[in-house]
Amino acid sequence: MFFNNKLKEEVYMILLPGFKEKRSQSK
Fold first, then answer.
1. Rg (CA), the chain
2. Is the CA virtual torsion 15, 17, 20, 26 positive or negative?
3. What's the rounded Cα separation, in Å, for the pair 11 and 15?
4. Its domain of life (predicted)?
5. Is the pLDDT of residue 2 over 80?
6. Residue 4 — very low, low, confident or very high, per pLDDT cuts 50/70/90?
7. CA-to-CA distance for 7 and 26, rounded, in angstroms?
């Protein structure tokens, strides 16, 4: 469980900025 949680955190740190960039480009 702990490992899975840490993995999710890393994925969010990588994906979140990407989502924000896409939304900025769409505007």
1. 12
2. negative
3. 6
4. Eukaryota
5. no
6. confident
7. 29
